[in-house]
Amino acid sequence: MSKSFERYQKRKLISSYFSVALSIGLVLFLLGVLGLLVLNTKKLADHFKEQITITVFLKDNAKPVEVDQLQKSLALAEYTRSAIYVSKEEAAEQHSEDIGENYMDYLGYNPLKNSIDVTLKADFVSTEQIEEIAGDLTAKAYVEEVSYFKPLIPLLTDNVKKISFWILVASAVFTFIAVLLINSSIRLSIYSKRFIIKTMQMVGATKRFIRRPFIWTNIKLGMLGALLALLALGLLLYFVDRNYPELNLFQDLTILALLFVGVFVFGALISLISTYFATQRFLNLRTDDLYY
């Protein structure tokens, strides 16, 4: 009977420890995901900005040498990410595929122009800079027109600023909530041992002696929860990188390493602080107050 009760108590204790570690792990995982969003906000914004394309339409009488020189100069320009020449035949073929029919059969000619599709580096995607670039290109005698979706530029810039601001706000709020949740999990764990704490105190154990095993146990649970969170975070990073390699999530390994270390240290540190104050609370309570 005694052994059976001991096994029951042991299973109950392990279950309690596991639930605390899992709770800490889940909270730290969500905090880590938010940290990744904060660190990669600019990278995500740059990715969307670099999808904007400026199309330089060329006149029919443009010489091949002029077109070749223009493409090379655009490819080497400081603001250019890529510059791809698209002949009017290629453009017509692509357009026919998009609409599902060959419109040249009834038009009798190809109304499209030879063009160069230019994608810009993110730092140069602003209304003023794009207008300046478009003005310089339009001034060339063999350029017919420079086309891009003007309303999209300010809209994208404004949305990026708003998203960045709200991600920072969400990070602050969620960090506060994470601290509260981890603190609550640890306090509940120690609450179940409040009578043990008081009994040890009544037989003469010092507060430091009583606190020490609780603090060390919960630090280990915090580190275990952090390891679980980091494992899940690593799998998430791997999955996202496999499906969206253009985001280059593993490009800056130093930042990722700092984030992982930060999550691990945060898990251990908040466990230490929460355990200290939770045990201190029950150490300072009168025996009669333990029942409430």
Question: Which key terms come to mind for this protein?
Answer:
292 residues; alpha+beta; Alpha-Beta Plaits; 2 domains; 10 helices; 4 strands; rod-shaped
Which geometry do the CA atoms define? rod-shaped
Number of helices: 10
Which structural class do the helices and strands define?
alpha+beta
> What percent of residues are in strands?
5-15%
H/E element string?
HHEHEHHEHEHHHH
- Assign a percent range to the helix content: over 70%
**Unreliable parts:** none
Please tell me how large the radius of gyration is: 31 Å
The major pleated sheet works out as:
4 strands, antiparallel
Counting structural domains, the number is: 2
Strand order within the widest beta sheet: 2-3-1-4
For the termini, the CA-CA separation is 31 Å
Number of strands: 4
Mean of pLDDT = 79
Task: Summarize it.
With 292 residues, the chain is an alpha+beta fold. Helix content is 71%, strand content 8%.
Descriptive account of the structure:
Helix 1 packs antiparallel against helix 7 (152-191). It is built from ten helices and four strands. The mean pLDDT is 79. 19% of the residues are buried. With 292 residues, it is α+β, with helices and mostly antiparallel strands. It has a four-stranded antiparallel beta sheet.
